[in-house]
Design goal:
The structure holds two protein chains of two kinds. Chain A contains 17 helices and 14 strands. In chain A, a hairpin with a 2-residue loop joins strand 1 and strand 2. Chain B is built from one helix and four strands; from the N terminus they run βαβββ. Chain B has a four-stranded parallel β-sheet, covered by helices on one side. The chains are: A alpha+beta, B alpha/beta.
């Protein structure tokens, strides 16, 4: 089963016995829960689009491990063309779902772990690369969704993992056995964990020798004993319980995040990809971050396409589309969005081959891309709100629109141009609300700020990669400085 | 005449590619259209690209004649 259909994917998640908690209660079925279901639909889209002739060129690749056609979300990049196609696939999915489709973290974790394990083995004579290639074969053959888990809760950020008051604030090995290790800790902000088959855990920062127990990378099924997921709240999340399709803005798709607790979870030896080689913790983090910063140059752009489209639509519906300032705002939104895309494409086109044979993005350009992502979606959202007008946040509910007594008043007083129904006007306004301050704003705004590393993390990388020394020499040469 | 269709991935298309192909199928209903497969030589291999970038990978596909469409104004057979 190299490619699952959307329905097969849903059935496969149904069979898992995950420990999910939300609003203080255990969730028996993530598949049927109205708050979680839209996020499952977004992942389902990654399976469905791969089945379509008109998208398979982006959505699928040929595995160098199995030789089979696989979903690109399980691909090990073999060229800069693969890196470019990854970004294009992400833009496509952003356009189709207007939300986070969650499967990128796994893809980025695969490629970071693939190249890093190769280099660990070369330095230490370990067998992590063999373990990982076998694992990837399993993932590709079964078309699995894998959550890439990096961010530890961190506690006091000024202290290293081993210096924290509570030693579990960074995930660590608490027991070493002949057949594997037992780990304890947590990973925060885990996007799509309830929609995943497996979780691939990596360390979150570079580590010193005294942090040996914290330098661990591994993968286990998400329903392994000891794994517990606590779903995070999203702005306006309980609107999904009201049964309205208008008020949620995007009734089909969404994202989800959770705090994932690893309460003494056993990891067998063949699922270990790093185990105490502290000097490689930084490498896996840097590579994962590089890939994930590239990812945002695709996914956020696709969501931005939808937001720009919604803004242009509401301008039409409000009868202001010919106003020069509206046209200029749409131009500005497009300019910003395509600048983000340029970063994603550029860091892919300038990628390079690692020792393991897979391809890595250009780190400077990937960090520049993500730095822009921490800013431009906010400006695009601001312009969308400007164009939408105040009704975006003051419009009555769908229940009021349907009410026999007050509905006619809404129909009478909230129309725009002739020929456009009040209902359609409200639908577009709610979509803009959803993206700028509703459930999807988690992905479009704050995730743009902090996902794949907060802004300062990119500035550190830009400083490291920026070659100021070389630029000084250029200036000296031109100025004829002796 | 057997026509094999190969789409680009469709990341940011300038027109509705599938709608255009449906128009072609309707207009030339006496031709046989199918998704292009490796190992079959088509009378026409129709590459449907959403933009001028033409990133569709058709290296392994074959056709006696290859026609590339990259905008909705190009319905020619």
């Amino acid at each position: 089963m190299a490619l699952m259909t959307g329905e097969q994917y849903i059935e496969s998640i149904k069979k898992m016995n995950m420990q999910i908690y939300m609003f203080g209660e255990k969730i028996e079925s993530a598949v049927d829960n109205p708050i979680l279901r839209p996020s499952l639909n977004s992942v389902k889209a990654t399976y469905e689009l791969a089945q379509l002739a008109e998208h398979e060129d982006l959505m699928t690749a040929t595995s160098t491990i199995t030789g089979e056609k696989i979903n690109r979300f399980t691909n090990i990049h073999q060229s800069t063309d693969d890196l470019v196609k990854k970004v294009k696939m992400q833009r496509l999915l952003g356009q189709k779902t207007a939300s986070c489709f969650q499967r990128c973290v796994g893809l980025d974790a695969f490629n970071a772990t693939y190249s890093t394990t190769y280099e660990i083995d070369k330095a230490h004579g370990t067998k992590y690369f063999d373990n990982f290639v076998k694992y990837m074969k399993y993932v590709q053959e079964n078309d699995l969704t894998v959550d890439g888990a990096m961010t530890d809760p961190k506690g006091d950020r000024s202290l290293s993992p081993s210096k924290q008051d509570d030693p579990d604030l960074y995930l660590r090995v608490v027991e070493r056995r002949e057949d594997g290790v037992v780990v304890r800790g947590a990973k925060a902000h885990q996007t799509g964990i309830t929609n995943s088959h497996e979780v691939l855990v990596m360390p979150t920062i570079a580590m010193a020798p005294e942090d040996k127990d914290y330098a661990v990378a591994f993968s286990v099924p998400v329903d392994t004993e000891g794994i517990l997921m606590i779903v995070g709240r999203q702005s306006c999340d309980t609107r999904k319980l009201e049964g309205s399709t208008i008020d949620v803005g995007n009734s089909e798709f969404g994202g989800m995040e959770a705090l994932v607790v690893f309460d003494d979870v056993f990891v067998p030896n063949d699922r270990l990809f790093l185990n105490g080689e502290t000097e490689f913790a930084g490498m896996i983090v840097e590579r994962f971050a590089g890939y994930h910063r590239q990812s945002y140059g695709g996914c956020k752009v696709g969501v931005g396409d939808v937001l720009i489209g919604a803004s242009a639509l509401i301008a039409d519906y409000n009868g202001v589309s010919k106003a020069s300032h509206i046209k200029d705002k749409l131009i500005e939104m497009t300019h910003l969005n395509e600048t983000l895309y340029s970063g994603g494409i550029a860091c892919s086109a300038e990628g390079y081959k690692t020792e393991s044979g897979n391809y890595m993005v250009d780190l400077l350009l990937a960090n520049v891309c993500k730095q822009n992502i921490t800013r431009f979606p906010y400006e695009i959202a601001r312009l969308a709100e400007d164009i939408a007008g105040g009704l975006m946040v003051t419009a009555p509910s769908e229940k009021d629109l349907r009410n026999l007594k007050i509905g006619p008043y809404i129909e009478k007083y909230l129309p725009g141009v002739n020929g456009i129904s009040v209902e359609n006007r409200l639908k577009v306004l709610r979509l803009i609300e959803n993206l700028t301050l509703g459930t999807a704003a988690v992905g479009y705004r704050t995730e743009s700020m902090h996902g794949a590393g907060s802004p300062q993390a990119q500035r550190v990388m830009i400083a490291r990669q920026g070659n100021i020394k070389g630029k000084k020499e250029l200036a000296k040469a031109i100025a004829k400085v002796n | 005449m057997k026509i094999g269709i190969k789409y680009c991935g469709g990341c940011n298309t300038n027109y509705d590619r599938t709608a255009l192909v449906e128009q072609l199928k309707s207009k030339y209903s006496y031709y046989e259209f199918e998704p292009a497969e490796v190992g079959i030589e088509y009378d026409v291999l129709l590459i449907v690209s959403g933009c001028k970038r033409l990133c569709a990978n058709y290296d392994l596909l074959t056709g006696k004649r290859i026609i590339i469409i990259d905008s909705e104004n190009e319905i020619i057979l």
